[in-house]
Amino acid sequence: MSIPQIVQKGLALILGITGWYLIRESSIMGREAAFVYISGFNSFDTTEYLRLMDNFIFSYQLIGGILLGIGLLYLLKGLDQK
């Protein structure tokens, strides 16, 4: 196995683990991101906070899914090559 293939598999593994982590922790990170975003305002509506939290959670899950998909694709592509 050549050095570029090892580097490709390592990067694919890092992308996959990062995507999995983002998906797994998206509810916590989304809640924290919404709180930090909305804490800059003097007053805020609870429904607005919940909507922001849902949007942030969805964004983290989407990014995590994309990263996980790319990582798995490159890992499987690397396994196909000999």
Report what the structure shows.
With 82 residues, this protein is an all-alpha fold. The chain has one domain. It is 85% helix and 0% strand. It has helices at 3-24, 26-38, 46-80. Helix 1 runs antiparallel to helix 3 (46-80) and helix 2 (26-38) packs across helix 3. The model has no long low-confidence stretch (mean pLDDT 90).
Task: Spell out the blueprint of helices and strands.
Blueprint: H1 3-24, H2 26-38, H3 46-80
Helix pairs in contact: 1-3, 2-3
What share of the residues lie within helices? over 70%
**How many strands appear in the DSSP assignment?**
0
Please summarize the sheet with the most strands: none
Strand content: under 5%
Radius of gyration: 18 Å
- Tally the helices: what do you get? 3
Protein structure class:
mainly alpha
What would the principal axes of the Cα set say about the shape?
rod-shaped
Mean pLDDT level: 90
Tally of structural domains: 1
**Which blocks of ≥5 consecutive residues have pLDDT under 50?**
none
Brief descriptors of the model:
85% helix; mainly alpha; 82 residues; rod-shaped; 3 helices; 0% strand
Characterize this entry briefly:
This protein is mostly helical. Helix content is 85%, strand content 0%. The protein contains three helices and no strands.
